[in-house]
Amino acid sequence: MKEYFEKWAKKKVWWDWDNYSGIFLLFLIIIEIITGFSLSFYYEASPEGSNESLRYIMNSLPYGWLIRSIHYWAGHLIFIFLSIHIFLKILKKKFVKEYVVEWSTGVGLLILSVLWFMSGRYITWSQNSFWEITTLSEELNELPILGKYIRLFIRGGESVGSQTLTRSYVFHILFLGILFSTIAFFHFKSIINRHTDTSEVSKKSFALYLIDALIIMFFLFSLLLVFSVFLPVELPPPADPYAVPEKIDVFWFIYPLYKFYTLIPKHIFFIHRVLIFSIACSIILLSFSALPFIYDEKKKYLANFLHIFFLFFIILYSGLSLLRVFL
Amino acid sequence: MNILAIAYIFFLMPTRIDSCRICHGGETFSYEKSVHAHLFSCKECHGGDPADMKKTAMSPLKGFRKLKNKREIAIICSKCHSDVEKMLPYGKFIDELRIYKTSKHGISLFEKGDEKVAVCTDCHGVHDIKRVNDPFSSVYPFNIPFTCARCHADKEYMRDYKIPTDQFEKYRSSIHGKLRLENKDMRAPACPDCHGVHGALPPQTKNIHQVCGKCHEAQKLYYEKSIHKDVEGFSECASCHGYHDVSKPRYQIFISESGCLKCHEKGSSPAKLAEEMMNMFVEAENSINSTIALIEKARTKGFEVEEETIKLKEAKGWIIEGLTVVHSLNLQEVRDYCQNAIVISSDIMELVRLKLIEWRDRRVMLIINIFIFMLTAFLLILKRKSIKGGQDV
Fold this sequence. Notes:
The complex is a heterodimer.
Chain A: H1 2-11, H2 17-40, H3 49-59, H4 64-91, H5 100-122, H6 127-140, H7 147-155, H8 162-194, H9 200-230, H10 255-263, E1 267-268, E2 271-272, H11 273-289, H12 291-294, H13 300-326
Helix pairs in contact in A: 2-4, 2-9, 3-4, 4-5, 4-9, 4-13, 5-8, 6-7
Chain B: H1 2-12, H2 20-23, H3 25-32, H4 43-46, H5 70-81, H6 84-87, H7 96-102, H8 104-110, H9 120-124, H10 144-152, H11 155-158, H12 167-173, H13 175-182, H14 191-195, H15 208-212, H16 217-225, H17 236-241, H18 269-300, H19 306-325, H20 331-392
Helix pairs in contact in B: 1-3, 7-8, 12-13, 18-19, 18-20, 19-20
């Protein structure tokens, strides 16, 4: 049965999509960096100027709307292709010990992508982002010992204000950018090292991959243009510290986590839910990144269980996240 | 209840000797929640001797009074409420009794001896009197229409007075009632705002525009310039807008039987003038509605239309002002206002159209770009095939 499945899967074109989705991601990140760099010329990181500068970019700056819309949509597409990428990598068991560097750096890149996206949301300094960062820092404050320091670190002071925005901005364009590039370097280096075959056949395969990558790039550009023209990003309402919104729209990719968090009672035996949630997330992430060490082909039952468990976990998680987008 | 009262006295307030509280537990509890609770005791209103633990505490010899008479109640309340020294710290008026005596209620009570009319305690409560700004007070701005309705909507109670009892129902369904009771909008009037607080009187026919004009000042000024002002028997604002059932005026009022046609014959020159005015407003309103639709269209295409929306408010403002000016019945003036609204609305429409043209250009640009991308991708696919073919060989 298993042999039949693998044989069938190898025949299909989509079987190679674990690599193609990676190329998609690489292009999207390059687009994000280029458009983000362009936007940074006109963006002003202050509570008063943030919304105004975005308004200027969207309405007065020639093609500003296009650059910002591409930046916005590329950010969202990253998470769709990330889900596909992770799913296919697990399906193809690209987490065994042989792939330990790619896998662990990949998990790191996943976490950094989420933080990168969230910091990008915060610097729009909209009503939603203001209250999201307020609530998040307030909840993290409940963590024992470290809580108040984390809160202070996120806010840059006692209250959410200009310091918080400056921090988010520095994180978004500098800190996370450098960290992401460093980890991505090791991720790609490990992939390149695996393919250091200089034979003629390999060179031809490389040329084929390059052409595929170019086709993907043109496809992506078209997709982003269609999104940007027909669904241009709207200017969110500016932050109002005196008006508490009825609800906060959480970033769709972390929505299942958020929903899970809200389902936990506030205190369980005097322990705040944020601690329970943090421990649960840490265990899942650690076991996820340590999968190459846990997974052992010789222990058949455990290996099959882990394979199926993480496969279903990714399907369920991505499905729930996408449901949030469409519902 | 008495056991509770005793427990209250002995365990919570052991130093306070007040014989009234031992027997009148219920009254004591409601009194403790009132605004007067920490200012004075039962004795101030009822007299008697609270230090006397026997029934003789309620002896008339000790100044006890039952306060069954409404006139007595009004006088007892005014003992403090007409005292400058006592009221000064609270910034209260001291002429409530004097004003009350000029009201329908006061005249009936003091001159005709009618004990059914409302006196202080009927509106403010008996022992549990709360501050006017306490949301649980019966005279709190959002509660007062219900308080007035307790008597004025009671057909049985009002039978002798031969006045309608549907005012509350009409008010509740009126624009004023909906705003005050449903939207909790303090700007909308409730009963005392038109009829007076303690000096409650029905506004006379020749005073109605003064009463309505307290809030609708501009309308009042224009009305005073109009020909309607000097028409005998014309019930001012109420003739067109109604009394308690004031509804949001629609343009139909110009041509409806309940509006202008109530007095003017269809086809007559005043009726034609009214129709012309209505047409002007409808035209201006239609122009604004078309602009709104266009703005919405541009908004859904991702364009910033904040400035246009603000400008459109100016156009709407001209219509609102025009609807005020209409009370003067000056056709030329009304035309000017409507024309201003149309001009502004058309200017905005032009601006929005330019944005929609830009959107069309965006789409054209998109099609050209996608065509170039797809063509390049197609050529790349061909190249790929040729390389793959060579590799297979």
